[in-house]
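Lecture notes, structural biology module. Today: joint structure prediction for complexes of two components.
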Amino acid sequence: MLPRMQRESVRKSDPGRRSFLKIGLGGTLLLAAGGGIFGWRFWSSSYAQLLDPGETPLALSIKEFAIAKTFVRALLPAEDGFPAGESLGIPQRIDEEVWAAAPELASDLKAGLLLLEHATLWSGHRSRFTRLAPDEQRLYLGRLLTAENSTLCLIALAFKQMTHLFYYGHPAVWQRIGYDGPLVEKAVPPDSAITYQALLRGRP
Amino acid sequence: MSGRIFSGRELNADVTERCEVCIIGTGCGGATVGVNLAEAGRDVVFLERGGAYTKDDFDQREIDMLAKIDGGRALDISDDGAVQLTYGNNVGGASVHYWADSYRTPADRLELWAQRYGLTGRSEADLAPHFAILEKDLNVHEAEPRFYNRMNQLLKQGAEQLGWQGRPVPQARKPCAASGFCMQGCSYDYKQSQLVTHLPRAVAAGARIYADCEARTLVFGSGPSTVTALEAAILDRATGRPSGRKVRVEAKVFVVAAGGYGSPVFLLRQGLKGRLPALGEHTYCNPCPMVHALFDEEILQFRNIPAAWGVEHFRLARHDGDRYVEGGYLLMANQLQPATLAAVLPGLGGSHRRLMASLRRLGGTICWIDDVEEGSVRLAGDRPVYHTPLTGGNALRIRDAFAKQARLLFAVGAKEILFGDARDTRLVPSQIEQIDRTVAALDLTPGRFVLAAPHPAGGARMGSDPRVSVVGMDSRVHGTGNLFVTDPSVFPTAPSVDPSLTIMAFSRIAADHIRALL
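The predicted structure, tokenised, for the full assembly:
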């Protein structure tokens, strides 16, 4: 018997990802304010520098892709015999998922990346997420996962889940974790993956 | 005359179908109604939003399969992130990714539905002949011990040690490859999903199935009570977006069987809420708290049957007067393939990687909470917004389920257990006395841990009063002459066990009513 159980109150739910991430005008103003603080005019070039030559997202903007890439780098560096998430194309896979998602969800995910980038302000950092040192980035993400603010918490959880899902679903990681893999040999990619890749190849 | 399955990509022009019965959805509800009507000589057309796949498409790669058969590509959540909505999006519905657990509806639950919600014609005796047929058709049987993976062996051992009653979980399989890829669709056609049972029989009896086809609008006749046609959009499977081509089905009877998450939303979009205030209300979803555990020995949770043996001791909640004491859930061995497991494990960076490096020794358990606090689904514009409260009685059950799982896992030798919450709360055997205190301190705020919600129910519940229910005892929508609902959305509450067999039994009864109408 758990004493606290009897006192479980009916708490009003916080606004969640689905409702809150429709950031609309308020959110846009918020991000614009962040832009003023960090120096908007330097953004596009600095984000583009985070991308490799020829790296082109299909659904995410350059800025959103750079944030996703930084997230993957922070979470999954090459260490202890694990390959880097970036080397396995996980940022591109996130772009694919946003491309394939329903429009409302895709816009939530894109807004979530922008909030990840700028919510550093709330945790006392002076730089945005992509400008933090890798150790600081991990600390920041850890703080977001336990943040009082449910929205920040949900965003961090959503990208953590997605990144881990794609990384550990990649055959290059299986040996390291002792997973002997599927019992059928032939992979059959979904239509969405085939079309996404074809569209990427078709790009100049 | 044999029917066939049409994929969206085959349909290069608009299609008009005329038939006796049009069914929206091909999961346990729709397929069961359809096969019963088709084999009785009725002309049946199915519309299915998801794609048509065969075992050759089930490649056992988690990421590939999430995109093919999981609704929302596993990214769908409730309004505040409390639960992750788990549902099928393919011909065969959720039965293609389910674990094949096949329980009869417990007698106590049927009595509750009769006494509190006024259901008639659904007593244990009424359902028994339907269950007998379904169990034969789906080869429902208890798994032999050779199909118990190590986690199921430990679950059984722990339950016996603690004096908790359990039994082998009835399985719909014929035979079984023990691969462990049930959630990715059976690559061997051994799991007896609707894809390999009712649907092929329905097609053999002449039914046509239109895959990649999203039902949009019911067309009513001169009055509001008779539906004359259904308009649907053919989807591009790669993007899930409308291709521009359409299907129109003119029929005598229309059956909504789009699943517990889908059917209430479809009916809301038809503007029926004004006439039926209970529509979208009184929903349930069996939230699933998990506890992960590290053992010294190899567990290999990702192989063999997921839930071969289950603890039923706590299925019914126990109260002392009005005070909740314990229970209100089933307790099972958990089975997740590595990518999904990685997604739900707590931690970041090194701590998460160390866990994944121990994959072969990672086991764990899961509880299906028989939720008592009702949720709802509403439309915000055209967008469904689901709400599941993790408060009140639901929170009491979730906490108790965490505590019982922890106790069992330590009883069978777990060296460390993890509650999977954002703070990465863990306990080691020397802290066994701290279980209750630790569980009481877990933060159940949405987003602090991952709860799958695989068994939606309610939202279009059955009853005789249109003010508090949506369908009558014949599964027909109140106030309509030819519109039926046959899936878990008609249940007054969750059934307290895996719902698949209950859905099918209710659907067989609905098929009898529809046949009588034609």
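Point to remember: The two ends of chain A are 65 Å apart (CA to CA).
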